[in-house]
Design a protein that fits this description.
The protein is an all-alpha fold. Helix content is about 60%, strand content about 0%. It is built from four helices and no strands.
């Protein structure tokens, strides 16, 4: 006759889902809410740095489409991935 093994009560909660983040952690937890504020913040920060470099080097006009578009096409998708949590494992 076979016996059924009773699970150890200490291991029952090992694989349960994590409770949803609340408060401030809800905005900083990886996911769509962090994407919504982090992607524009990250992207426009680097566009500002680009304009600052162009101003310091006396390159006019500051808001020229070529350099701005090149930077935007790199940093906005990178900001999206950072906001979504694509690099959280490497950063921890």
């Amino acid at each position: 006759m076979t016996e059924t093994a009773h699970p150890d009560p200490a291991q029952e909660h090992e694989h349960t889902a994590r409770p949803p983040a609340t408060g401030w952690h809800r905005l900083t937890h990886p996911g769509w809410l962090r994407v919504a504020w982090f992607m524009p913040l990250f992207g426009f920060f680097w566009l500002g740095i680009t304009c600052l470099i162009r101003w310091a080097a006396h390159w006019y006009p500051l808001w020229q489409s070529g350099p701005i578009l090149s930077v935007a096409l790199v940093v906005f998708p990178l900001g999206f991935l950072l906001g979504l949590g694509g690099f959280d494992f490497w950063l921890y």
